[in-house]
Amino acid sequence: MRITHVETYAARIPLKPIRRMKSALGQHLVSQYVLVRLGTDAGIEGVGEATVMPRWSGETVWSAKALIDRIFAPLVVGRDPTNIVEIDGLLESACQLNWFTKAAIEMACWDIAGKAAGKPVYDLLGGAQRALEFRCRFSMGAYDLDRARQVAADRVAAGFDTIKVKVGGDVAADLARVRAVREVIGPSRRLVIDANCGWDAETAVRAVNAMAELEIDLDEQPTTDGDYAAMARVRRETKPPVMADDICFDMVHARELVRGECCDVISVYPGKNGGIARAKAIVDFAASHDVACSIGSNLEWDVATAAMCHLVVACKNVNVERYPGDVLGPEYHEFSIARAPIKIRGDRVTTPSGPGLGVEVDWNVVRANLCA
Q1: 3-state DSSP call for residue 183?
Q2: Which of 223, 273, 282, 334 could potentially form a cystine with 230 if both were Cys, beta carbons 3.0 to 4.6 Å apart?
């Protein structure tokens, strides 16, 4: 089987007003992503998603589309899509970084491989290590106090046991927001904070220690990108477990985190890590050093969310039972590009069990919502 053609679609979907995100990285009101469609001479089609945000990874829909159309497509046409190692090698040799863009091609190849074998991707990764349905946390933006209380109460009513609150700005305002959420959700539910690289080490230590009475269960990405020593300091000088996210895109980053004893948990996801295989490699490496992993999010649509689900189900060390992750991206958006959207009910998401990624894209919806 060989790849015959590659199509790309830069599309946009607004977030539901109630789900609009605000963090140390700014506001997120509309998602502009690239969907990839790989055709083969066997008549099997694969889909992938480049969940790009310029403020996060430096990629845009236009850079992703141009890179795929002009650089990656000529390389992969004529290649066997089931040879993931070869495909990954071609993408890596052609271009540095651009993890989400590479992931779109790679996950489309996994989709084809699964369809060709008549198996879901999690079976290709070694089989299910946990139930197909698993619980997630809810991630809320850096909202004003009234809205933070309202969202927290709403999500508790919807069944969420873990709430993540965006911080990373003014410490006093962050502390007031986290306190307000803790008061709403009560002492028995888990409370996570995420600074998205918004603090330096000194500020992070001061802020997290000021929240000690609020019983923070996890401190996600407290310090700036690239400063591993700062994260290690926060881990030494504060109580909550520390999660690395924005600072870990590839295996080099993962090794540095482990070498420096910088974190207790690493957040992985196929888009950020350049594909399903690369994400799994980080998970396996972390497991060999007794570092847990969880699943992060870039507010994905159904295609990339499916890839995340398959990774969670196939990897025991993606420890969502202890550290619930973010796999709710489709629920944040006003509509879906999937004919049968991924099942999300409250804090529970169900992994598609059909062949490949298990998601069928409605291309008419995609074409009706192309970026201008």
Answers
A1: helix
A2: 223
- Helix residue ranges, H only, the chain: 61-67, 73-76, 84-94, 99-117, 121-124, 145-157, 171-185, 201-210, 228-237, 251-259, 276-288, 302-314, 329-332, 363-367
State the virtual CA torsion across 124, 251, 325, 144 in degrees, nearest 10: -150
- For the stretch 103-142, pLDDT in tens is 999 999 999 999 999 999 999 999 999 999 999 999 999 9
pLDDT tens column, 57-78: 899 999 999 999 999 999 999 9
Q: What is the mean pLDDT of residues 238-245?
A: 98
At 62, is the secondary structure helix, strand, or coil?
helix
pLDDT tens readout for residues 208-226: 999 999 999 999 999 999 9
Q: Distance between CA atoms of 327 and 335, rounded to whole angstroms?
A: 16
pTM: 0.96
- CATH for 123-350, options being 3.40.50.150, 3.20.20.120, 3.40.50.1100, 3.40.30.10: 3.20.20.120
CATH number of 3-117+361-367: 3.30.390.10
Domain boundaries, the chain: 3-117+361-367, 123-350
Whole-number Cα distances in Å, 263 to 13, 259, 305, 317, 348: 34, 10, 25, 15, 27
Q: Which of 316, 303, 221, 224 is nearest to 270 (CA)?
A: 303
SS3 253: helix
